[in-house]
Amino acid sequence: MVTKNSVEFDPYIERKAFDETQEGVKGLVDAKITQVPRIFHIPQGSLTDKKPSVSDLEIPIIDFASVHVDPSSREAVVEKVKHAAEKWGFFQVINHGIPLNVLKEIEDGGRRFHEEDPEVKKRYFSRDFNKKKFVYNSNFDLYSASPSVNWRDAFSCYMAPDPPPPEDLPVACRDAMMEYTKHVMNLGDLLFELLSEALGLKSETLKNMDCLKSLLMICNYYPPCPQPDLTMGISQHSDNSFLTILLQDNIGGLQILHQDSWVDVSPIPGALVINMGDFLQLITNDKFVSANHRVPANREGPRVSIASFFSSSALPNSTVYGPMKELVTEENPPKYKDITIKEYTEGYFEKGLDGTSYLSNIRI
Question: Lower CB count within 10 Å: N or C terminus of the chain?
């Protein structure tokens, strides 16, 4: 990428220099920069490729309060989940059973870590899950083919099936992560039951395919940006997961692509955002959709979100996934080749967040 005022621009060298500070985007903001560095500049036109929705469209909001009351109440919830999974790929859930104080503590804990002294955070800096259980860095795809760097720092940690020993987690968020994980696993259990029923299958079907087995927690931290029109908080992408549970703070910013328009996912106090991932679209043979989403950069901030991915992407897993036999017929043949999650994830990471779905590479 060459800019008018710079003939020589080596994005790799500049990305590496940024990485070696180990202070992320927060370090740039703390240095009181007034201009966004070139590596963060998105290609011209990519923010206006899809216009934000001008209508009052809202993603579905589903109340889980009645899910355990009686069979007919549960069926009504399943119908709403089915509609959301098929038409939107996203919904917000209220009365999900996770106490408000638990939500507040994980949000506060994530913020506390990201606002720690840089020297504390550097102890956890890595790009290799094999070296550290708890990994802090900026842009997991920094060295991929992604066209620009995102205005976002994050920490990541696999909390299931083998959670790290408590002493491997930072004090700032240790207790909050362990408590939140317990509740998220319970909610995930219920969600996979409801999604199985929405497919017309037995409640345990998706859980029996190990969809619930692995949980990756990522805490995103989006500092305020001095030139938000030049960059993105996180570029357009779909998730390489079966399912994602997202807690976003009251600043908001998440947008999903629906019918060729960007729709804001407005924060609802106490609600959680649920979205289908690529692996769920794959095994349901396009019955459920893994929708593209993004977070624009913002002058307001810092914005914090906690994403919990049901996915074993960085863990050894030899299971081969393809469209479920129960959902395939002569009239509806398999739309995807079989693939392991490891193979899929390697391709997904190498591609980076470039606005395309890696599912297109395995489509038959």
Answer: C
Q: Has residue 128 been placed in a domain?
A: yes
CA distance 35 to 46: 19
Three-class DSSP category at 82: helix
Residue 234 inside a domain? The answer is: yes
Are the C-beta atoms of 306 and 217 separated by less than 8 Å? yes
Residues 304 and 221: beta-carbon distance below 8 Å = yes
Q: Which among 244, 266, 269, 265 has a CA at the least distance from the CA of 256? A: 265
- The domain of 84 spans 23-361
In angstroms, rounded to a whole number, what is the distance separating the alpha carbons of residues 111 and 107?
A: 6
* DSSP letter (8 states) at residue 163: P
CB atoms under 10 Å from CB of 164, counted, come to 16
Domains identified in the chain, total number: 1
316-350 residue pLDDT tens: 677 899 999 999 999 999 999 999 988 998 888 88
Look up tokens 């083998």; give the residue: 162
User: What are 232-242's pLDDT values in tens digits?
Assistant: 999 999 999 99
Measure the CA–CA gap between 218 and 156, rounded to whole angstroms: 4
The structure's pTM equals 0.94
Q: Report how far apart the first and last C-alpha atoms of the chain are (Å, whole number).
A: 34
CB within 8 Å of 70: residues ≥ 6 apart = none
Other beta carbons within 10 angstroms of residue 69's beta carbon come to 11
